[in-house]
Write a structure and sequence with these properties.
Layout (H helix, E strand, L loop, with lengths): L1 H15 L28 H11 L11 E2 L2 E2 L1 H10 L9 H4 L4 E3 L9 E4 L10 E9 L2 E8 L3 E6 L3 H6 E6 L2
Antiparallel strand pairs: 1-2, 3-8, 4-5, 4-8, 5-6, 6-7
Helix pairs in contact: 2-3
Amino acid sequence: MNKLLLAFVLTFTLVSCGSKKRIAASSPASGPVKQSSSYKYDPVPVATRVADYALDFQGTRYKYGGTTRKGMDCSGLVYTSFLSENIQLPRVSRDMAREGRMLHVNEINVGDLVFFQTNKSRDVINHVGLVVEIVPGSVNFIHSTTSRGVIVSSLNERYWNNAFVMAKRVF
């Protein structure tokens, strides 16, 4: 019964929430993502190429200010991935958050940006991820963390769910 109730709440939340609302917590992203995918609707081809380019950096170590395979930070990963398609974005996550169109959670697709506030004592966006996969009940994004480097995580993970601020589309 609890699982059924959780599934209903998760479905309702994903369908009805705006970009500032939280997604109900569930399981983390399952295994390494090899190629971007979406179940809702096909992303524009450039979005898929940007996401696939970013996925090639999985396992790269974290380096503050980094934009290469030797090391990169979260905004460096996003900046470099978009640059691969000649799309110029600001270099810092809080400046990236000023670009594009705000999305409701149920509009998020591959290639969209997700923004986070991980330091609750400062009211500023300080982390960004790139959506690489949409599966029923989970929005998976690639980003660079100080502890694990470039990884794929889910908005359903409690930490990222609590830190989530908004999603934007720049295409």
